[in-house]
Amino acid sequence: MVSTRGWALRRRIQYIVGIALFLFVVLGGAYMRTLYQPPTCFDGDHNGQERGIDCGGTCVRICAADVVQPVAQWARAFKITDGQYNAVAYVENRNTIAGAPEMYYTFKLFDDAGLIAERKGSTVFPPDSVNPIFEGRIQTGTRVPTRTFIEIEEPAMWLPAESVRSQFEIKSRSLTHADTMPRLDVEIENTNVERVRDVEVIATIFDVSKNALTASQTVVPVMSARETRKIVFTWPEPIATTVRSCELPTDVVLAIDLSGSMNNDGGTPPEPVTSVLAAATEFVNRLGTKDQAAVVTYATEATLESPLSSNRVATGRLIQNLRIAPESEQGSTNTGDAIIKATAELQSNRHNTNARKVAVLLTDGLANEPEIRPEAYALEAAAKLKAIDTEVYVIGLGDDVNESFLRSVASGDAYYYRAVSADTINAIYQEITGSICENGVATIEIIPKMPITFKAVQ
Q: pTM above 0.90?
């Protein structure tokens, strides 16, 4: 006979378990519906199949630990006018697919006394590229920045991105008026089949050592599909003296000492004048097709023998036919007058305003005309010549020159050459030719900020 007490106990246990199961199902369902949140890429927690907090694994966002942080290659400030500067930096993204929709930065401009000004901004940061960052018209008051830095904040979000720099093609470029107010005319084509908006284009001009000289920015509001657009960059400061490239033409005045001492080595034909004139002729023949040359000779007085001209053959023939005038055999050397004649020619209407200005002066003796303060007279003239952005090269021939004086006439020590004898003149002229026009990498870099497509965050 079964005990009624055992049966009743079992029934009570069944009721309790049933009620508990019922409550678990009801309350668990309510919890799942109202309180439980499945792992997502936005919950601020390292859960699910993520590699980090809300990044990696099944999340689109790329973890900061998996990317190389931005690298600033250089930053510089360029004068627009007194008290106003543009700041430019080149920042590299070494990640092949990871880009940042927003990257914050701060430009800081310093002089010896400390911080002058700073400018904050943000930019899109495309992958696998070097990106120019431009901030214009930074006010510096009366202070002149000597150092510029860019501080970059670590981007808060990295995403897979596609950038299409090849979407834009530079069809042509032309740098003009580099001697006064430089102007860069550019034709750029949108090669894509889609219209783009707000295309930021930055132009940077470098010297042959890849040092940035200046930069400018423009924004094209709209570019239609397959459209070619003309854009213009301008600068208020001349750059001709600093752009050492065949990108720019050159106007050069050769000032040749034809005083009596240039016959002192004797011989038939006489030396050193014969070797000097032959080397000067070859110098002119080596100039580029866009260059111009003028010739000034000097003894007691200076004479403009040939004005600026691109006819290298005619100018070379004139140099070959130069002779020391009989009255100059016992004459003096008026270096200052030669410099004044060169200055006048480089300021004449024959000067190409797109060209840099260069003067090359050769002498074998002392400046001794005018009789009162001849060297001071020449140095004053040289200062005026250099003040109009002219590079002044000086060749001192032989042992009878005042090298200290000639170095002061030149634009600097690197612009003075000592020729121990006439047979070294040609090599010196060749070196000057190389200094005036150096073939090398392009000195103008035009970078359109490319459209970027980021993978959507889900």
A: no
